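Exercise: predict the fold of this chain.
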Amino acid sequence: MTRVCVAGATGWTGSAVAEAARAADDIELVSAVARRAAGSEVCGVPCFGTVEEALAGPPFDVLIDYTAPGCVKDHAMAAIAAGRSVVIGTSGLTAADFAEIDAEARARGVGVVASGNFALTAALMTRFSLMAAEYLDWFEIIDYAKPSKIDAPTGTARELAERMGEIKKPAFEVSPSEVLGEPGLRGGTVGGVQVHSLRLPGYAATVTSTFAHGNSRLTITHDAGTDASIYADGTLLAARKAPSLTGLVRGLDNLL
C-alpha cells in the first residue's frame, strides 16, 4: 500500500487526483494540503495549510504536488529532505530546477517523477514525438491553453521541447535570432526548439508537434478536454512507481 499526500487537493486537478487516490485499492490517501481548507478534512483526511505541516503530520510515502509554479520547487525539496518521494504535476519548473531536484533526490536516495502532463494519451503523444525527432530534422511545437494560464509554455510543451532538443537541435534556414521583425514573432526557444504559445478561450491544454521532411508534414497533437480526471490514472501510476526509484524521472512515458 502506497501512502500519499496530495498538495493542491482542492484545485482543479488536485481534487480529481485526491478522489482517485481515495478510491484506489492499493493507495492510501493519508493527508492533503490546501490553504483554504486547512484545519478541515478533504476526501475524509486531514488537510494542512502547508507542505511543511503535512510532513510533520501522519506519515506518508509520496507527496503528489498540484499547486502553483511559485512554490512547487520548495515543496519538492522539503519532501525530499524528509526522505519522501515526490510526484510533480505542477508546471513552471525549468531544466535547471529539475537538475537541482534530481541532484538532491539522488543525494537522499529517493525517487521523483515529474511530467508536464500525466494523461496517458499525452504520454503517448510525447513518445511518438520523440520517435519522430529521431528521424526528422525540421520540427516546432505549438502550445494552446486558456487565457488565464499563467506560465508559458505549458509544462507539457516545455518538457516536450527540452526532451526533443536533447535528441537533436532542429534545422533552420534562418535562425530565429536573425529573423527581421519584432522580437519573439518566431516563438520562444526552449532546449533549442521553437515553441509558440497561444492563449485563447475554448482551450484547456493542447500541444502539437509539427515535423517536416521534404514536401511532407507530420502533425502529432494531444488535445485535453476540461475533465481533470484524465490526469488521475497517470499520476497514481507515478505514485506507485516513485518509491522504487532514485533520482528524477521526467515524463510519464518513461514509466509505461
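Check your answer against the key: The radius of gyration is 19 Å.
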